[in-house]
């Protein structure tokens, strides 16, 4: 199952993907403009339809979820169980979009880890200790400085930004163009 255009592209073109933290609406940030929120709500059926194209039944578009714990948990799992990191990332995605769970809740993240035979107690302990916070904040700051303001966003070779939902064919064309330009 592909959950995004990038996943679909990876089925045709081998790409090394590094997931980095980005909070669309960070806690403590300014409140969402009501007109913007209304546009999101009105566009949600279109987003759900796009999700169905990838076999994803998107239920949630929660507002105000603190996603930083999920970003930190992913970074921690990369060290705790690197072979399970991609599966954990997918589990977080599904928990949020398909199961409408609060991925800002440490207990939800621990349960997801345990469902993949990852040491949930170790994850909880490291989350409580503040592990990976600096790394996540640094990635978020880098994203903001790079001009990223929405999701999804892909950065190829640390210099080519593709922002917004794009069909797989668009991303494949971008990848091929970059490969030609860079001689890769």
Structure description:
This protein is mainly α and 184 residues long. The protein is 55% helix and 4% strand. It has 8 helices and 2 strands. A two-stranded antiparallel sheet has the order 1-2. Helix 1 (5-12) packs across helix 8 (168-182), helix 3 (68-80) packs antiparallel against helix 4 (85-97) and helix 5 packs antiparallel against helix 6 (120-128). The two termini are 28 Å apart. The relative contact order is 0.15. The model has no long low-confidence stretch (mean pLDDT 89).
- Number of distinct helices: 8
Number of strands: 2
Q: How does the helix and strand content classify structurally?
A: mainly alpha
**Span between termini:** 28 Å
Strand content: under 5%
Shape descriptor reads globular
What is the succession of H and E elements?
HHHHHHHEEH
Rg value: 17 Å
- Spatial strand order of the main sheet: 1-2
User: Mind summarizing the main beta sheet?
Assistant: 2 strands, antiparallel
Secondary structure layout:
Elements: H1 5-12, H2 34-53, H3 68-80, H4 85-97, H5 106-115, H6 120-128, H7 133-145, E1 153-156, E2 160-163, H8 168-182
Antiparallel strand pairs: 1-2
Helix pairs in contact: 1-8, 3-4, 3-6, 5-6
Give a quick set of tags describing it.
184 residues; mainly alpha; 8 helices
Concise structural overview:
By secondary structure, the chain is mainly α. Helices cover 55% and strands 4% of the residues. Strand 1 and strand 2 (160-163) form a beta hairpin.
């Amino acid at each position: 199952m592909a959950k995004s255009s990038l996943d679909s592209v990876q089925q045709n073109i081998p790409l090394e993907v590094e997931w980095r933290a980005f909070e669309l609406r960070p806690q403590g940030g300014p409140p969402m403009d009501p007109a913007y929120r209304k546009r999101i709500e009105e566009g949600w059926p279109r987003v759900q339809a796009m999700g169905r194209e990838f076999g994803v039944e998107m239920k949630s578009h929660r507002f105000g979820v603190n996603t930083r714990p999920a970003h930190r948990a992913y970074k921690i799992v990369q060290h705790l169980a690197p072979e399970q990191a991609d599966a954990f990332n997918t589990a977080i995605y599904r928990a949020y979009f398909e199961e409408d769970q609060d991925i800002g809740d440490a207990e939800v993240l621990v349960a997801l880890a345990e469902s993949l035979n990852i040491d949930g107690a170790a994850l909880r302990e490291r989350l409580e200790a503040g592990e990976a916070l600096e790394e996540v904040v640094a990635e978020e700051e880098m994203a903001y400085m790079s001009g990223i303001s929405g999701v999804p966003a892909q950065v190829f070779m640390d210099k080519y930004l593709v922002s917004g939902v794009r069909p797989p064919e668009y991303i494949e064309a971008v990848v091929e163009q970059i490969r030609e330009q860079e001689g890769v």
